[in-house]
Amino acid sequence: MKRFVLFFCLLLLVPLSGCAARVPEDDGRLAVVASNFPAYDFARAVAGEAASVTMLIAPGTEVHSYDPTPQDIRRIRECDLLVFCGGESDAWMEDILASLDRSHTAVLAMMDAVPLLNEETVEGMEAEEDEEGEEYDEHVWTSPANAVRITAAIRDALCAADPENAALYRANAEEYIGQLEALDADFAALAASAARRTVVFADRFPLLYFVREFGLEYCAAFPGCAEETEPGAQTLAFLIRKVREEEIPYVFTIEFSNGRVADMICEAAGCGRLTFHSCHNVTRDEWEAGETYVSLMRRNLENLRTALN
Asked: What is the H or E stretch that residue 123 is in?
């Protein structure tokens, strides 16, 4: 991302027009910009029809390789409320935030709404070569309890930015938080009754907050924000041995995975493969079908039930 810093600085000094993509005209509603799918979905649920909510990262985009466009920068600078994750993957946002008129734009980082956990490297996991000390894990929304906290924070930010519609925002938040709490209870019941306690991810592992909430153990090929997608022989051997020794019936991949690591483990250990959607982003088909954080997590609930029982 560092190569874009100068580019950003120039953009912030020059009005965006002409060749820039068209930004929708102001329709009089509060303008909310969300950086990724969880931020978008929580804001959409609370805002209802009272605010216009835009997701910066296009459906189908691999979030870790996203670079903002001039149109994205303009949307951020002109919005009333910005909701983003924070953390390393949003480092590109720093130059833009420095230019914002905070009397016009309110800013909410999801990582500021929850207790944070340090990203960790567990036994067998491929450590990154350029790892420099501990970083906070930024996938805070993967815990339904955290999703409740973030939704409440978005509710409060919307109420402060648009007091005239505060009653609507509170009502919408109450309804959505009810869905999240029901989801949370169903995951807790599954975890309490499951025959197994360990999940194996033949992939990145962006679910630290999730497993910590529900008391599950895990093994994985990479940390959540790893740039590598091909593990070394030692990591692969460890995961295959783990699956064989504990007779684990399924390994998981996440959305947008190429699945190669899972395929190697499945072939060597004779197990099956399932998907656990981290909800970081959705495919174009999922977007058009109206998938939400709750619907995706309920799909995860059923896949987890299959894997642990």
From this structure: none
Domain end: 149, 181, 213, which one? 181
Residue with tokens 């070394």: 232
- Show the DSSP H helices in 162-232 as ranges: 166-193, 208-214
Residues of the chain with confidence (pLDDT) below 70: 1-26, 128-134, 226-229
Pair (154, 58) in one structural domain: yes
Taking each helix axis from N to C terminus, what angle separates 5-13 and 70-78, rounded to the nearest 10 degrees? 60
Give dist(CA 142, CA 5) in Å, integer: 30
4-37: pLDDT as tens digits = 443 444 344 333 333 323 334 467 899 999 999 9
The answer to whether 54 touches 166, Cβ cutoff 8 Å, is no
In degrees, rounded to 5, the angle at the alpha carbon of residue 80 between the alpha carbons of residues 76 and 84 is 50
Task: Specify the pTM.
Answer: 0.89
Rounded to an integer, what distance in angstroms lies between the CA atom of residue 259 and that of residue 264? 9
Could you tell me if 174 and 215 lie in one domain? no
User: What residue numbers bound the domain in which 295 lies?
Assistant: 191-308
Q: Are 46 and 172 in contact (CB under 8 A)?
A: yes
Q: 30-57 pLDDT, tens per residue?
A: 999 999 999 999 999 999 999 999 999 9
Q: Do 197 and 164 fall within a single domain?
A: no
How many contiguous H segments (helices) and E segments (strands) does the chain have? 11, 8
pLDDT at site 223 = 78
Are 237 and 268 in a shared domain? Answer: yes
| pLDDT confidence of residue 11 | 41
Same domain, 49 and 74: yes
